[in-house]
């Protein structure tokens, strides 16, 4: 059968990700759109391998103001999808249909998936689906993505609409002066729109809006541009408003009329009522931030103590059994001694030590996924807006920082969506201070070795230190290098909902898969290199004591720099250097250098390198110093220069050194 490409478009928090997972199941993969850093997800429709769905970023309009809007617009205009699946939140239908009208103007076969209809029905409200479909001129299918209702009907309707090339029956949603302006401009640019392969209605509307990319693509002559400007000026004069407001008023006027005919609303949905009551507490000026800290403390306690520790012990035992089995097989096969040491002391020790933290990674992302899908994380951004404004940023910058708790690379990339160049640069600099998941094995290693009875407390203190350093840095930078005011912050607060189990499980699987991939690529190679450098001297003779190795020479040269921080041992400094490749290699490096075979042996070996105070100082430094090479490369790409990236890395490392120095020196005075 003919291959079909569908674009899945909709507002943020409309249930788009849940619907995408329902449509594709596990038949999906993640990458980036060509030339930009916005994430691209695509997958084959279940039971229909000929149909592919691309999950476009959540947007509110097709105006080219953010990377997400540009990516969505370019995709539907340049990739020529066979159809558009537009997901609409039925509980907030008026706002969601604003994007729908713009998508209809593209003239592409389209189906509206009216999501969360279960909530509409439960509240006693109703929507006349046939009448709404008639008013919009496109098929409308009621669904509940969270409960997997209506998905099969949606798939069949989308496939039929695309195969039969059923384009929208309506394009004209305007009247009065806006109607005259759009149609007058459409007559002027008919030939140019056809030549540029732009839908005529879309092109005319965008010219009324003053859209520069559309103007450039049409290649109009000076006379045509002058006539269009005159038409728009007349429209603005008659309406007493500007061009963009006129279009917005036109669209919302149509939406209000359509909803008055199709939507019967007796009351707010139960979810909306419940959300308003919960928000009185969770978004409170007094309790908002303390509650967030309390929730994170609970998550860390469960992750690292209640469930994480026994699961990690089981994982460690399993890796130990496999290591012993492989060692026995190699001995029986009389494999050379150096190769046995490489496999057991190098690869198994390095990779195995990191893999043992897999249960902790999966658990943490399970809880973070619950917070995200429930709608709570949007509240955290709202609550943090006031605090961030005091350091010269808006609440929008909290989103990249929040992503930074997962991985610094996508967090740095997501800063591209910030409309202010100043906010973008400051956010890129501060985001790596957030503790990414790659640092979790380091925290776990140090905490279990030195702070077994205060795991959650130490863990949350490390996170708080990173946040406090980011706040202090923001205050300093906003008053020196990056002067200026933050941009206004607007964010929709979705209703609280129970997270979809499948979405949560898919996220956990993706994170586990990514962690395992890193363990068997970067950390695998790093473990081999570290074993080689700590096993041989400059003459390539195998050494009996790693203190005589090449690595010891390098580490000993650098170690004095870290002596004031409490960890002047060459093994600690070497681990920090290798940590630049990937933060997890700090654990594998120390494991290889100490020759530890189990977590218990590693804890004993670390006691010879650190004291509890110097171990905490080491933790503080690892939280704050420059991120991994991948994050550094992302910074260079986003900042546009090597100079900016290098200065950012130097600042981060300098802040790490000063903070760890203060922690150790003050701690030494207190404990004296």
What does it look like?
This protein is of the alpha/beta class. Helix content is 64%, strand content 7%. It has 32 helices and 9 strands. The strands form 2 sheets. Strands 2-3-4-1-5-6-8 form a 7-stranded mixed beta sheet, with helices on both faces. The radius of gyration is 29 Å and the shape is elongated. It starts with a strand and ends with a helix. Mean pLDDT is 83; it is low at 30-37.
Structure described in brief:
With 672 residues, the protein is α/β, with parallel strands linked by helices. Helices cover 64% and strands 7% of the residues.
What fraction strand? 5-15%
Continuous helix count? 32
**Helicity range:** 55-70%
Q: What does the overall shape look like?
A: elongated
Topology readout:
Elements: E1 4-10, H1 16-24, E2 28-32, E3 39-45, E4 48-55, H2 67-78, E5 83-89, H3 93-104, E6 110-115, H4 117-122, E7 126-127, H5 129-136, E8 140-142, H6 151-163, H7 176-188, H8 190-195, H9 200-209, H10 212-218, H11 222-239, H12 243-262, E9 263-264, H13 270-282, H14 288-306, H15 308-332, H16 337-355, H17 358-374, H18 376-390, H19 398-404, H20 408-414, H21 421-430, H22 440-450, H23 455-478, H24 501-519, H25 522-535, H26 550-562, H27 570-578, H28 585-594, H29 599-606, H30 612-624, H31 629-639, H32 642-671
Parallel strand pairs: 1-4, 1-5, 5-6, 6-8
Antiparallel strand pairs: 2-3, 3-4, 7-9
């Amino acid at each position: 059968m003919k291959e079909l490409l569908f674009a899945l478009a909709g507002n943020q928090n409309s249930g788009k990700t849940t619907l995408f997972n329902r449509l594709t199941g596990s038949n999906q993969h993640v990458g980036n759109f060509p030339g930009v850093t916005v994430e691209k997800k695509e997958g084959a429709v279940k039971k229909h391998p000929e149909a592919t769905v691309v999950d476009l970023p959540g947007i509110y309009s097709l105006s080219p103001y953010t990377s997400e809007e540009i990516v969505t617009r370019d995709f539907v205009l340049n990739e020529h999808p066979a159809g558009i699946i537009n997901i609409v939140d039925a509980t907030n239908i008026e706002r969601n249909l604003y994007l729908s009208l713009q998508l209809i103007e593209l003239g592409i076969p389209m189906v509206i998936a009216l999501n969360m209809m279960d909530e509409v029905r439960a509240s006693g409200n109703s929507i006349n689906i046939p009448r709404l479909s008639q008013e919009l001129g496109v098929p409308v299918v009621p669904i509940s993505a969270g409960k997997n209702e209506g998905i099969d009907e949606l798939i069949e309707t989308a496939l039929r609409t695309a195969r039969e090339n059923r384009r929208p029956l309506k394009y004209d949603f305007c009247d009065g002066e806006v109607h005259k302006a759009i149609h007058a401009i459409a007559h002027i640019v008919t030939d140019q729109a056809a030549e540029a392969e732009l839908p005529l209605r879309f092109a005319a509307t965008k010219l009324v809006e003053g859209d520069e990319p559309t103007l450039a693509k049409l290649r109009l002559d000076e006379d045509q541009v002058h006539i269009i400007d005159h038409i728009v000026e007349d429209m603005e004069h008659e309406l007493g408003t500007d061009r963009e407001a006129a279009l917005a008023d036109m669209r919302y006027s149509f939406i209000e009329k359509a909803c008055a005919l199709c939507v019967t609303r007796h009351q707010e949905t139960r979810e909306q009522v419940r959300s308003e009551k919960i928000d009185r507490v969770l978004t409170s000026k007094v309790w908002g931030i303390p509650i967030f800290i309390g929730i994170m403390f609970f998550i860390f306690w469960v992750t690292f103590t209640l469930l994480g520790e026994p699961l990690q012990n089981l994982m460690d035992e399993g890796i130990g059994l496999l290591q012993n089995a492989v060692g026995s097989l190699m001995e029986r096969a009389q494999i050379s001694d150096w190769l046995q040491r490489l496999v057991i002391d190098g690869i198994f020790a390095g990779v195995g030590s990191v893999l043992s933290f897999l249960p902790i990674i999966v658990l943490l992302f399970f809880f973070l996924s619950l917070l995200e899908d429930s709608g709570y994380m949007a509240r955290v951004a709202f609550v943090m807006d006031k605090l961030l404004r005091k350091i010269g940023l808006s609440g929008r910058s909290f989103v990249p920082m929040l992503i930074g708790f997962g991985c610094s690379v996508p967090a740095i990339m997501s800063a591209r969506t910030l409309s202010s160049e100043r906010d973008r640069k400051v956010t890129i600099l501060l985001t790596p201070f957030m503790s990414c998941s790659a640092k979790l094995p380091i925290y776990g290693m140090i905490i279990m070795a030195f702070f077994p009875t205060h795991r959650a407390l130490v863990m949350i203190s490390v996170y708080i230190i990173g946040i406090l350093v980011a706040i202090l840095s923001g205050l300093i930078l906003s008053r020196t290098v990056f002067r200026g005011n933050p941009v206004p912050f607007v964010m929709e607060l979705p209703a609280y909902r129970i997270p979809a189990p499948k979405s949560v499980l898919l996220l956990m699987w993706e994170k586990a898969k990514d962690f395992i991939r890193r363990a068997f690529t970067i950390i695998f190679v790093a473990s081999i290199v570290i074993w080689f450098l700590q096993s041989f001297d400059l003459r390539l003779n195998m050494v009996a004591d790693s203190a005589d190795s090449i690595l010891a020479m390098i580490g000993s040269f650098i170690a004095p720099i870290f002596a004031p921080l409490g960890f002047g041992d060459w093994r600690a400094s070497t681990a920090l250097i290798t940590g630049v490749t990937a933060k997890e290699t700090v654990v594998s490096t120390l494991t290889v250098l100490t020759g530890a075979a189990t977590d218990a042996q590693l804890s004993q070996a670390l006691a010879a390198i650190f004291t509890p105070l110097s171990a905490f100082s080491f933790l503080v430094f690892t939280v704050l110093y420059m991120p991994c090479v991948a994050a550094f490369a992302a910074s260079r790409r986003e900042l546009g220069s090597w100079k900016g990236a290098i200065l950012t890395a130097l600042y981060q490392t300098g802040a790490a050194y000063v903070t760890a120095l203060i922690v150790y020196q003050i701690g030494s005075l207190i404990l004296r």
